[in-house]
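Structure ticket #2291
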Amino acid sequence: MDYIYRYESPLGGITMASDGEALIGLWFDGQKLFGESLNKEHMEKELPVFRETIRWLDDYFRGQIPSFFPKLALRGSPFRQRVWQILRTIPYGQTVTYKQIAQKIDETGRMSCQAIGNAVGHNPVSIIVPCHRVIGSDGSLTGYAGGLDRKKILLELEKGGMDDVQRS
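Resolution: structure written out below.
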């Protein structure tokens, strides 16, 4: 059985999902691929992993670098798992390109940036697994399932805190 819990962030509602022990999903409500890794049968329930995730999110949205991570159990293919592991190594406030991730996976340069983009786009745990830190080779903001406006705000938040974020 999977479980869900809701959190109201400064950027809108977030739904968290758990297998009962670990976080398996975290999506902005209504985002592309919402709930993709969530079993059809699920129920709302408060769990320790959700309380820990809320603490993490509260720290993050205050502009602080969280000093801990909730336990994760990401569901996906071995290739996606590898990409998501690379995402977790991107430092707070920094960005990498899809091409740089492709080069980490395949040093021969034959790895498709589209394949990387697909795996990044299917990241089931937004923000905590920081897919918003991946940008185009030309520095453009591309491909964020939560929306490019949110991606921009998350990157600005990491540079200076929520008080410095300009909302349009």
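Closing remark: The longest strand covers residues 2-9.
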